[in-house]
Specification:
Elements (H helix, E strand, L loop, with lengths): L2 E6 L1 H5 L3 H10 L3 E5 L6 H7 L9 H8 L5 E6 L3 H9 L12 H5 L8 E3 L3 H11 L7
Bound molecules: guanosine-5'-triphosphate and magnesium ion (MG).
The site of guanosine-5'-triphosphate has 10 residues, from helix 4 and strand 4.
GO molecular function, one term: nucleoside diphosphate kinase activity
Enzyme class: transferase
InterPro entries: NDK-like_dom (IPR034907), NDK-like_dom_sf (IPR036850), Nucleoside_diP_kinase (IPR001564)
């Protein structure tokens, strides 16, 4: 599809960087299909990140992702998944390229400001985790 899913993570929301991040997303040519501010429980974070269940950082990640408000969004653009991963940069901000969202706003490997779906299939699954059909325009 031409859609991807993203969330501004608790560190970036707390720091007041949501506006700047949304501005970068729109400037890069993504159209916002759905957007809200919400907070999830550690258990809901566990469901969202179920693919990482076996990873050593799973519990810390779920605690962190439920530690404060987040801003999930569905975005539309040609080649959305790959282009968005490029815009956010590497998982570890130390390796993120200049001009990427993580280079500018991420604090650490865990508190790395933003999420981006890694495939069309996961974009659909992750988008429907947060938004119903009538919330997508
Ligand atoms: P997402 O867009 O958030 O999915 O990031 P990613 O695809 O670049 O990375 P990945 O899916 O491998 O990991 C998911 C999230 O787990 C990362 O964004 C980090 O917040 C966290 N994470 C990944 N690796 C580590 C790690 O080694 N230690 C810790 N504490 N957190 C990690
Ligand atoms: Mg990922």
């Amino acid at each position: 599809t031409n859609k991807t899913f993203t969330m501004i993570k608790p560190d970036a929301v707390k720091d007041g960087n949501s506006g700047s991040i949304i501005q970068m997303i729109e400037a890069a040519g993504f159209r916002i299909v759905a957007l809200k501010k919400t907070q999830i429980s550690q258990q809901q974070a566990g469901q969202f990140y179920a693919v990482h269940e076996e990873r050593p950082f799973y519990e810390a990640l779920c605690k962190y992702m439920s530690s404060g408000p987040i801003i999930p969004m569905i975005l539309e653009k040609e080649n959305a998944v790959a282009d968005f991963r490029k815009l956010i940069g590497a998982t570890n901000p130390a390796n993120a390229e200049d001009g990427t969202i993580r280079k500018l706003f991420a604090k650490s490997m865990e508190a790395n400001a933003i999420h981006g779906s890694d495939s069309d299939e996961n974009a659909t699954i992750e988008g429907s985790f947060f938004f119903s059909g009538t919330e997508q325009y």
